[in-house]
Amino acid sequence: MRVTGVCTVRDSSPFNGPVAFDLLLRSFDDIEVVKRPSLLSISNLVFMVILLLLAVIAAGALGVVLMRKVHGQTAAMAVLTEAEAALERRRSRILEDISGSRGLAEILEEIAEMVSSNLDGAPCWCEDADGARLGNCPPEPHRLRIVRAKVQGRSGPALGALFAGFDPARPPEAREAAALSNGARLATLAIETRRLYSDLRRRSSSTCSPTFTIASPWTSVLTF
């Protein structure tokens, strides 16, 4: 920059070396910027290096966070996929039992156990139309928050109900009704299939076997 003013030398012999002086300015207009300082300076270079280091650190931290998030989501998806596969295997086994000769009570208990495993181990049980309870019914169910799904027959009155008990402090979730509804449909299939088998056996045993009478042909005797 260029400064214009009245210079006063403090030393009486200014020729012996550098001396101090005072510069008297009249106004701010006496200071004039001739040329801007160069950007390629040590201070600017240090500032840019610090910015680059901060950017590298931020990018590395973001990469670590994203990697952990991806690993967490991958593990959660793997657990969910395994749980769905296990649920599908159990459902297939129940369908095979319904088509087989396994008892209805055992099938309903297995359905209640499947619903319980799908609801993080919550106690589940099934009540048929006669009031019999099958499954894991707690001794004091009135202390729990009970979710109920009706086991509705395809025609006629209800065949029973499927229940699940939860901690009253636990807020309701949409998957509770979905799990109980799926279990209730399986229970409906099991009960109606067993009733159909029982009806067919009763009809087959009450039907009399037909009796066939074969008449002997007449024999003609010829006399010569």
What oligomeric arrangement do these chains adopt? Answer: single chain
CATH architecture of the largest domain: 2-Layer Sandwich
Q: Helical residue percent? A: 40-55%
Q: Which residues form runs of ≥5 with pLDDT under 50? A: 211-224
Q: How do the strands of the widest beta sheet line up side by side?
A: 6-5-8-7
CATH domain topology of the largest domain: Beta-Lactamase
- Mean of pLDDT: 83
SS-based class: alpha+beta
Would you identify the CATH H-level superfamily of the largest domain?
GAF domain
Domains, number: 3
**Count of helices?**
3
Keywords:
alpha+beta, 224 residues, two-stranded antiparallel ribbon
Give the gist of this structure.
With 224 residues, this protein is of the alpha+beta class. The chain is built from three helices and eight strands; from the N terminus they run E-E-E-E-H-H-E-E-E-E-H. The longest helix is centred in the N-terminal third of the chain and has 58 residues.
